[in-house]
Amino acid sequence: MTEKTVLPGVLIASGNWAPEPWALPFTSEPDRPLAIWPDVPDRKAIHYVLAWRPPSEAFTNLPNLKAVFSLGAGVDHVVGNAALPDVPIVRVVDPDLTTRMTEWVTLQVLLHHRQHLAYARQQAAHQWRELRQPVANDVRVGIMGLGELGRDAAAVLARLGFQVAGWSRSAKSIPDIETFHGEDGLTAFLGRTDILVALVPLTADTRGILDASVFDRLARNGALGGAVLINGGRGGLQVEADILAALDDGRLIGASLDVFEPEPLGPDSPFWDHPRVVLTPHVAASSEASVLADSIHRQILDFEAGKPLANLVDVSRGY
């Protein structure tokens, strides 16, 4: 009698996200053990963990663990886990996630460029008054972070006619996009930026990077009459007290914020009712879990067929 082959097992530790959509692609493989945290009957069977804000216990006593797949665009929630074994960490990179982030960034840029907040206030007051609209080519957008998400957003905004530049910690080259890098390039990048879009990963180096010193260096002489902050990256990037102070004293004329720390945003936060703020509940790159799960499943199958894992995290850098 032929012994039944058991495939490497998968553990879904999806935090406050429903695990069922992430598990769905694996349910078609009856010979692959599938566990949903915290119910892990056989820890030796687990070779892969699909994780979003997992507890440390999810990584303990997994002697055959081969890789960890982050279920979101960021990986700080995994890299910072003290119990994480020395195994590859894989970022989720999928066209659906990238497109959705670019949609959100483009929407926010256009909301501020076309003065939507002012028109919304006029609508509430039953006022019919045309406001001046600068042309896109006179507006300078700066993308802080030139990974997969930043590059795609930069390309779309450039096609719409905006003057787009990008900044990253290390040098990067993108066709038709002016790029800056490192601390030496940050001041020049900020000084030519009317709308700052933050898409950098959250690391020890970038925590709190969106602070008063950054807002002080943003352009004041642009077509919008001031500077705008858009953060679709991580809440830990921003110093919220500094954002509020900059909004109140005019260093920022507007902000779109999708992320906060901690989340959810507290009901008493002044951001809720601030007239110059667009607030969304961490949905900028919100993708269908089933789509991303299929992508992870395909990569696992490729890995088991002998192909290398793609989109690996450099743990020393934190992204």
From TrEMBL:
The EC designation for this entry is 1.1.1.79, 1.1.1.81
Alphabetized, the UniProt keywords read: NAD, Oxidoreductase
Tell me the InterPro entries matching this sequence. Answer: D-isomer_DH_NAD-bd, NAD(P)-bd_dom_sf
Q: What class of enzyme is it?
A: oxidoreductase
One protein family per Pfam = 2-Hacid_dh_C
- From the Swiss-Prot or TrEMBL record, what is one GO molecular function term? glyoxylate reductase (NADPH) activity
| Keyword NAD annotated | yes
In terms of superkingdom, the source organism counts as Bacteria
Q: What SUPFAM superfamilies would the database entry show?
A: NAD(P)-binding Rossmann-fold domains (SSF51735)
Q: Where is the D-isomer specific 2-hydroxyacid dehydrogenase NAD-binding domain?
A: 109-284
Q: What is this protein called?
A: Glyoxylate/hydroxypyruvate reductase A
Instruction: Please report the organism this UniProt entry assigns to the protein.
Output: Kaistia defluvii
Q: What high-level taxonomic lineage is stated for the organism?
A: Bacteria, Pseudomonadati, Pseudomonadota, Alphaproteobacteria, Hyphomicrobiales
